Amino acid sequence: MTTSTQGNASQKEKALPAVLVLEDGRVFHGRSYGAVGETFGEAVFSTGMTGYQETLTDPSYHRQVVVMTAPHVGNTGVNDEDPESKRIWVAGYVVRDPARVPSNWRSRRSLDEELRGQGVVGISGIDTRALTRHLRERGAMRVGIFSGNALPDAGTMLAEVRQAPEMKGANLSAEVATKETYVVPAIGAKKFTVAAVDLGIKGMTPHRMAERGIEVHVLPATATAEDVYAVNPDGVFFSNGPGDPATADGPVALMQEVLSRRTPLFGICFGNQILGRALGFGTYKLKYGHRGINQPVQDRTTGKVEVTAHNHGFAVDAPLDEVSQTPYGRAEVSHVCLNDNVVEGLQLLDQPAFSVQYHPEAAAGPHDAAYLFDRFVSLMEGQRA
Ligand SMILES: NC(=O)CC[C@H](N)C(=O)O
């Protein structure tokens, strides 16, 4: 690769050395990608081969350093249509072989430029397959990326990584959620009003509801039952979001209030974990989680298998093969991951409430699970009938 003749600042920055240091002491040497500096987070891998803009801007990735298993990243550049929120949330980005020349009719700038513009430190040119296998065998762990000409010594880097906060016990929703309520209008005739509690919501989620005639009031993570019922909702939605669901006591209490009023309820991802807790189940940290757009899930209510988008590091601990008695009536596991039998959905049998651990909004990802938004609409219709 010769970059010297082109000689602009970005090309020079790319050539700077960079090091990725895992908390268990494993080290990878590469080149800086995006901003130059240092960053820390939880190392996780995503198996999505497309959709890097959606991944980078998903608030659920707050405080995580994302390793892309797809070797070529950045090929289609960065456009202004695909972000799922107003900024990049990942704490760091790890790619093997970034595109040097992006090409797409929608592309406005390169991914490298975008990462630099938003101050996101990344690393390229490392063996992401070896790193992914390491994380798969040892589990997700803390990591640091250090880039520049004057790097700290190895012992200092490792000590800094080991001082970074862990994901277990992290309470992060309020750091990413909206501070002010906003409304996403229904597309076409308005049929329903939904109060959506923003724990780190992705932009496509209210859009999927709006497409179905729902006016969505997106409320801050700290919303109270009074705030929720002030919009006179036909249904209440709990979004995806970063951090450990074991810390989400406020949203759990709010959801219990919604359940006791029997308002139709739908939760996605963090929202599924909160429903689990609201029903009295525990949550636990998966060894390395599910991230990507090709995860097989079975809907046990129909037997159908869907290929789905995921981004979760925690899961609900609920019995797979029995109906549970909860303070809100009977509940069961409605969806399960076919790779590892992790709980991927919950539903109540005596009142209109359900949730899934994965991403039916499909940004990015296959649209197999779009029916879940229709199920939410049916619950709201049922309540009116
Ligand atoms: N996308 C999400 O909502 C993630 C939920 C939670 N933070 C987890 O990692 O499991």
Automatic annotation (TrEMBL):
Keywords assigned: Amino-acid biosynthesis, Arginine biosynthesis, ATP-binding, Glutamine amidotransferase, Ligase, Nucleotide-binding, Pyrimidine biosynthesis
Gene3D superfamilies assigned: 3.40.50.880, Carbamoyl-phosphate synthase small subunit, N-terminal domain
Gene Ontology biological process terms from the UniProt entry: 'de novo' pyrimidine nucleobase biosynthetic process; 'de novo' UMP biosynthetic process; glutamine metabolic process; L-arginine biosynthetic process
Positions of the catalytic residues: 269, 359, 361
An annotated Gene Ontology molecular function: carbamoyl-phosphate synthase (glutamine-hydrolyzing) activity
Enzyme class: ligase
Region called CPSase, residue ranges: 1-192
Function of the protein: Small subunit of the glutamine-dependent carbamoyl phosphate synthetase (CPSase). CPSase catalyzes the formation of carbamoyl phosphate from the ammonia moiety of glutamine, carbonate, and phosphate donated by ATP, constituting the first step of 2 biosynthetic pathways, one leading to arginine and/or urea and the other to pyrimidine nucleotides. The small subunit (glutamine amidotransferase) binds and cleaves glutamine to supply the large subunit with the substrate ammonia.
Family stated for the protein in its record: Belongs to the CarA family.
Protein name stated in the entry: Carbamoyl phosphate synthase small chain
Organism: Streptomyces triticiradicis
